[in-house]
Structure formats: C-alpha cells, structure tokens
Amino acid sequence: MKAKITILAIETSCDETGMALVRCSGGIKRPRFKILENIVSSQIPIHRPFGGVVPNLAKREHIKNLPKVFKKLKHVKKTDVIAVTVGPGLEPALWTGINFAEKITQQLKKPLMGVNHLEGHLYSNLLPQKLNAKQRLNPKIIFPAIALIVSGGHTILLKMRSLTKWEKLGETLDDAAGEAFDKVAKMLELPYPGGPEIEKLALSLPKGQKPSIPFPRPMLNQKNYNFSFSGLKTSVLYYLRDHPDSKKENIAASFQEAAIDVLVKKTASAAREFQAKSVMISGGVAANKPLNNAMRQKTEELKIKFWSPDFKFNTDNAAVIAIAAYINLLTKKKKLPLQANGNLTI
Ligand code: KG4
Ligand code: ZN
Q1: By Cβ atoms counted within 10 A, which residue in 176, 178, 239, 343 is the most buried?
Q2: Mean per-residue pLDDT, 22-50
C-alpha cells in the first residue's frame, strides 16, 4: 500500500447523506488524517414533522442527495479507495449508499470496501481533538483504553488493548442513550432530534438551581457493564403524568443528569477495573457538553486521559468512515460483504 492514500467515503446509515475525502498516512503506529472535504447533507427538517427518522423517506432523500453531494466534491480525482458504510443502520438507507458506491467504483476504477458504522464512531477519536487542534490520540500511550460509543442506535462499552483489538464489556439491553434523549424530548414536545434540544432546555434552568427530580439510575449498582435506559424514560413519562405543571427545564436537566450519571459511573468503574490509561467517547450523544464535562472530571480524578472528538465528528458523517476504512486497510481483518446489514455489531 502507498504511504499516503486518499479515501472517498460514503455514509447513508440513517438520516445524513455524508461524503468525504480524507488523506490518510502514518500506518497503524501513528495514523494521521487530513480531511480534504467532508460534506453532510442533513435530512433532519424532512423527518422532523414525523418526530423521528422514516426509513423510506430517508431512502428517497439519500437517492436524491447522493449525486448532488458527489458533484460538490472537488478532489474526486485523488481517490485511491472508496469506502461505504454497510451497517448497522436502516437497511433501505444503507443500500442507497452501497449502490451509489458501486457506480462510483466503476466510474473511477478504484477498489471499494465496506465499513462498520460503529468503527467510524470509535475511530473518530483519531481526529484532532476539540480542545487543542494539534492534540492527537497517540496509540503508543493510551492503551488499555475504555471506549464508550453512545449514539441514537447504540450504547456500547469496549475495552481496547490496541487500536484494532478490543472486547465488548457491555451494551444497552433496551433503548440506546440517544434514543432515550429523543423519546424524552418528544414527551416534552421538543423537536427531533431530541438530544441537542434536551441539552439546550436543561441550560435554561435558572442559575444556581440544580436539577431536583431524582430519576432512577438504571443498573448503576449491578456488577456488569450493561445499560438500560427504557426504565428511566418511563419514569419521566410517569413524572410528567403525575406533575403536569412541573417545569420542563427541570425535567430535562434531571433526566440528562441521570443518563450522564450512569454513563460516567459505568465507564469509570470499567476504567478502574481494567486499569485503563484513557477513556474515549464517541457517537451522537458524545456531542453533549455536560456529558463531556462530567467524563472529563471523572478521568481527571482517576488521573487518566480523556478523548472526545470535535463535536462535528460525533454525529454521523463520512470523514470518520474514511478513517475506519484506513485502519481496516492496515490490518488483515476479514473484509465486510458489500451488503446492507442493519444489525452489524462491533
Ligand atoms: O451517531 P448519531 O448521529 O447517529 C446514530 O448512529 O445513531 O447519533 C444521533 C443521536 C440522536 O439520538 C441524537 O438525539 C443524539 O445522538 N445527540 C445528542 C446530542 N446531539 C446528538 N444527545 C445528547 N446531547 C446532544 N448534544
Ligand atoms: Zn452514528
């Protein structure tokens, strides 16, 4: 493989049509990335009236957007490899990306590879960090690491021995963290996607006032690394039913606090048990500032490093798919079939 390669990546697993060109170098010991372009065409306004993503609408929009986004790319000629998300996600949406990628492959005569969307989230931490544009995750010093992937579809805790060797410690047994944010937002009559809306509403709690509703912290005291968010969501529902006049900002802030508490404490106990040198978070919910602050504080207490990608790389985009593709190219991992797999796991 050439020392430097340019990957054209396509992401259509949910409601964002993403395309990116990323220059990759450095190899597995010191992977480096230069994002030449990263376009995300969001369908949020289309799904918003339905309060969530409608798979067939997503498919229709991806089919419409893919050629438009492709036309906008200025560096297509530099492409060495094409990468496309094959799962997990909505299968009708995933197929649009795969079919489009197959067309581009014929046109550009470049190889095509499938990428696991969850690896895209996981490896988003290899991009420069938001705190300091020059700060990069250094594979030499961060392992063993605990990685938390928190998105609209997943909540997964991993123990990583290296960039490519990990084991799953636990995951959600019901709703994903992002799903709980979205459902609670709906109960509070906030628009989709609910995560950022809950975060915003919680901020409007008057200064000095702490969230005061003691929502449950599901599974916090169980000796395993699984999560459950559906009971928390139901508690919010009952609270709203029983206290119709209570302040929505207090409900939002109290729910957010409970969800963050579980995510941070479970991650921290894994970090302690496995003597991790760092914690990294990724996925849409990792864009939540209070979660970042709480996780950072906890890792400072534990005297370990904390990694969290720049906010724009947390929610779905193709740049992180290119990064995962590069890491896969560097290893001898079995190739993923070029077929949509809604339930692909990590
Ligand atoms: O990773 P992502 O873009 O898509 C999936 O792979 O699922 O994650 C989307 C999820 C949604 O549930 C959204 O509400 C949540 O991430 N999210 C947030 C925030 N921004 C996005 N949740 C909490 N706080 C945020 N600021
Ligand atoms: Zn995602």
Answers
A1: 178
A2: 92
